[in-house]
Amino acid sequence: MHQTRLIIETLKLELRKQQKTYKHVAEKLELSEASVKRLFAEESLSLNRLDNICELLQLEFSDLVSLMEENISFTTELSLAQENELVSDIKLLLMAHFLINGLRFSDITDNYTITETEGIQLLAKLDRMKIIELLPGNRVKMIISKNFQWIKHGPIQSFYKTVIQPEFLNSSFTLPGEFQVFTSGMLTRTSNTELIKKIKRLSKELNEMNTTDQSSELEQKFGTSLMIAMRPWEPDIFHQLRRVEPKKHF
């Protein structure tokens, strides 16, 4: 499954590089665009369809595998010390965050209180951490894998939970561009699994939109966060009214 995911991610990268869209893929595979999006989201492309997409990109399947192996060498996770370094230096964290999201160095120094000298020092740190490769002219090349993840329950995730999440939720969610919904139901394990798949698909779609929008001018873009959480759960105020402790467990 891990290899399949890497192949699909490499395919997406090549499509973007060659400015090919899902519409081009749909025409090649003689499918609807919606069907192609679903195949990519579910990572369920057959070998025959992979071959056809490679043909569209003028690549041999072996070329795609080679590109995938190059991506594997990218940074997939930071060390505990590196994550601690990020959360202990807000300017370093800010620089990493915006570079990962496609902003130019000049965009960051023009809009935030970071001097060019400070910025170059921050870039050098991120280069040592193998998040970026620092190029001449303060240009950067991202060298983190598409499968990059923060350490589970590590410093970054803890920082998010204690600092970012409460601030994000401290909103009425009624302003333009804001939305909030809370829905409950009684679901089977099968429905729960299906819903989680759809949530993951939505998260991937946001990441793809973020990549697509990197070519847009900064004035047209807004920092946007999406938070979705789901769990089998009963509010304590209801649980206290139960006659007996339920025997079923998820």
UniProtKB/TrEMBL annotation:
<protein>
    <submittedName>
        <fullName>XRE family transcriptional regulator</fullName>
    </submittedName>
</protein>
<dbReference type="InterPro" id="IPR001387">
    <property type="entry name" value="Cro/C1-type_HTH"/>
</dbReference>
<dbReference type="GO" id="GO:0003677">
    <property type="term" value="F:DNA binding"/>
</dbReference>
<dbReference type="Pfam" id="PF13443">
    <property type="entry name" value="HTH_26"/>
</dbReference>
<dbReference type="InterPro" id="IPR010982">
    <property type="entry name" value="Lambda_DNA-bd_dom_sf"/>
</dbReference>
<feature type="domain" description="HTH cro/C1-type">
    <location>
        <begin position="15"/>
        <end position="67"/>
    </location>
</feature>
